[in-house]
Amino acid sequence: MLPSLLAAEAGGLKRFEVEAATLRDALSELPIANLIFDETGARRTLVNVFVDGVETRDLDLPVAVAAEIRIVAAIAGG
Description:
By secondary structure, this protein is an alpha+beta fold.
């Protein structure tokens, strides 16, 4: 599930279904993967990810078939 800001970059879609073994694999399947990962493949620091309601930073986390992954982009500024 994507927040509105990221959904706009994904063609207006907020929900996607993907088949993946790990969280990294699932996020890489999204059309906004370039906004989630930096040039080195690391998760961008302002992108928070929740799997079944629990925040995680472990991209190698195995994901269950029916897992719900929610992406929350933090807003930065001054």
